[in-house]
Protein: 2-oxoglutarate (2OG) and Fe(II)-dependent oxygenase superfamily protein
Organism: Abeliophyllum distichum
Amino acid sequence: MKIASAISEGLGLDHDYIEKSLGEGFQVHAANYYPPCPEPDKTLGLAAHSDHGGLTILMQNDVDGLQIKHNQTWTAVQHVPGTFLVNVGDYLEVLSNGRYKSVEHRAVVNAHKKRISVAVGNGPELTAVVAPASMLLVEKSDIHYQPIAYQDYIRLQQSSTIRGKSPLQAIMINNI
């Protein structure tokens, strides 16, 4: 909640705006095991995607494998022992009306070592309507995302056969 408070204040909102917007909240836990792969260039551990929630906290063993897309290039994220990684998800991108961008990421496998990661994604309650915070909008034309129920957004994301950030792009009004 301290991170959410800092993001709220950074957007010029009340310090508890994001916390209140989460309501009862919705949390997803994902544990991933990537065994050693003798031909890592021929497989992918986890396809490119962005997380549907607000923030995702990632813990992993000491084997690198997480990559983020930055300026249309996949960049390896170096593991720092004793730390967690925090990714911004689609919910915060929509709530901030695009001021914060969700992180498109993927996982690759290692030829010699197993990789283990545990991710905890946090978002609003399933019945919450995901939309830009009204205090961030000056005019109606400033809205970059269509409102959508969070459970419908998750359904859209999980049913998409196109990876990456395509579910988020599906609810964009203007190309930002």
User: Anything to note?
Assistant: DSSP finds five helices and ten strands in the chain. The first strand starts at residue 26 and ends at 34.
